[in-house]
């Protein structure tokens, strides 16, 4: 079957695809799970996800290679992160193998929607794990649902690999230091909506958050991690904080930068006052891929990186990362899972 989609024009929008995977946890165990053609779910009104936000999600992509095959990028890392999020919210873990098998099933079942090689578009998978069933007090659910749905997507930030302006959300926090910032849970994103709206309405790609204790060091973007490359082009630095999401893209970039481009890499504190150290900066994530940061506005100060264009190393790392993801460049062992 061929589907009628203008792959080059895809943004990051919902599309109701034919199949999703659904599995339930009850009485201490997961069922086998199955594909469903129903995009709507029915859950009890007392479900803790609805009241108390007991739920977590993930985001990963399937890529079409030049030879037409389809592959997932590091789904084991998303599975492990979902387990960490589950632990944080007292939810049962989804076994790693079950997660990967479900991601493959959904990709295969919707294969016509995996965008063609060369369009830059991908099939984005959205796993969710939620607490369901009749409850009213603040306590963990007794039943859970694990679901993965999919959509073909293009760039998350307008234009994709295009230098983008960001603004520091100095009067907002995304997550508390000992809270849920390091987990991929919905409340962090609900908390980012106001700052995100402000940023978008003022022409910025998104907001950048500072650490919630001193409002001094960079945390991350509302939807991606931050990295900077020093002006001597020797070091790639990225923030270290308990309240940012451990980005799989970020760890992949750190490894690529070190092993393939000989950069020193470090997770460390990065002061918002030290942006002069960097001549290149970027936002990285599954949806964002690598989005070069042209400038960061902080109060009255607008800091431009380099000449505001995509930096040379940022571009090299982008090409290497996406080359690996689309199967054009040899991947480090264990990064690619054929579907
Ligand atoms: N930070 C936040 C807040 C995110 O939502 C995401 C997206 O998943 C990331 C960072 C990037 O993480 P990853 O590279 O694992 O997609
Ligand atoms: C992802 O990159 O997968 C995310 O979950 C970011 C999301 C805010 C779209």
TrEMBL record:
Catalytic reaction list: L-isoleucine + 2-oxoglutarate = (S)-3-methyl-2-oxopentanoate + L-glutamate; L-valine + 2-oxoglutarate = 3-methyl-2-oxobutanoate + L-glutamate; L-leucine + 2-oxoglutarate = 4-methyl-2-oxopentanoate + L-glutamate
GO biological process: isoleucine biosynthetic process; L-leucine biosynthetic process; L-valine biosynthetic process
UniProt-listed Pfam families: Aminotran_4
EC number: 2.6.1.42
Keywords for the protein's UniProt record, in alphabetical order: Amino-acid biosynthesis, Aminotransferase, Branched-chain amino acid biosynthesis, Pyridoxal phosphate, Transferase
GO molecular function: L-isoleucine-2-oxoglutarate transaminase activity; L-leucine-2-oxoglutarate transaminase activity; L-valine-2-oxoglutarate transaminase activity
Enzyme superclass (EC): transferase
Pathway: Amino-acid biosynthesis; L-isoleucine biosynthesis; L-isoleucine from 2-oxobutanoate: step 4/4; Amino-acid biosynthesis; L-valine biosynthesis; L-valine from pyruvate: step 4/4; Amino-acid biosynthesis; L-leucine biosynthesis; L-leucine from 3-methyl-2-oxobutanoate: step 4/4
Cofactor(s) annotated in UniProt: pyridoxal 5'-phosphate
Entry annotated with the keyword Transferase: yes
Top-level lineage group: Bacteria
Keyword field contains Signal: no
Residues modified to N6-(pyridoxal phosphate)lysine: 184
Family, similarity comment: Belongs to the class-IV pyridoxal-phosphate-dependent aminotransferase family.
Name of the protein in question: Branched-chain-amino-acid aminotransferase
Organism: Lacticaseibacillus manihotivorans DSM 13343 = JCM 12514
């Amino acid at each position: 079957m061929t589907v009628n989609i203008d792959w080059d024009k895809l943004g990051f929008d919902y599309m109701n695809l034919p199949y999703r995977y659904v599995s339930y946890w009850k009485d201490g165990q997961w069922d086998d799970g199955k594909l469903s053609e129903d995009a709507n779910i029915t859950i009890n009104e007392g479900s803790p996800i609805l009241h108390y936000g007991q739920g977590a999600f993930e985001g990963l992509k399937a890529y079409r290679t030049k030879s037409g095959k389809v592959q997932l990028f590091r789904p084991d890392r998303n599975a492990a992160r979902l387990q960490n999020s589950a632990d944080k919210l007292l939810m049962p873990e989804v076994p790693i193998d079950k997660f990967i098998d479900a991601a493959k099933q959904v990709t295969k079942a919707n294969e016509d929607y995996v965008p063609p090689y060369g369009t830059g578009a991908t099939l984005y998978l959205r796993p969710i794990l939620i607490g369901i069933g009749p409850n009213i007090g603040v306590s963990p659910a007794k039943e859970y649902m694990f679901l993965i749905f999919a959509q073909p997507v293009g760039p998350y930030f307008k234009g994709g690999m295009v230098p983008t302006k960001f603004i520091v959300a100095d009067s907002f926090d995304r997550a508390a230091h000992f809270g849920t910032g390091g987990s991929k849970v919905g409340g962090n994103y609900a908390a980012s909506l106001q700052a995100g709206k402000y940023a978008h309405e003022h022409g910025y790609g998104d907001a950048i958050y500072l650490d919630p204790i001193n409002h001094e060091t960079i945390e991350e973007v509302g939807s991606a991690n931050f990295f900077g490359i020093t002006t001597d082009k020797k070091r790639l630095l990225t923030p270290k904080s308990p309240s940012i999401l451990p980005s799989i893209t970020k760890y992949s970039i750190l490894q690529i930068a070190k092993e393939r481009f000989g950069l020193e890499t470090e997770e460390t504190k990065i002061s918002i006052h030290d942006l002069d150290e960097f001549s290149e900066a970027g936002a990285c994530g599954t949806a964002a891929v690598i989005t070069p940061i042209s400038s960061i506005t902080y109060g009255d100060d607008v800091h431009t990186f380099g000449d505001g264009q995509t930096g040379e190393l940022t571009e090299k790392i982008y090409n290497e990362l996406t080359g690996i993801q689309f199967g054009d460049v040899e991947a480090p062992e264990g990064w690619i899972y054929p579907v």
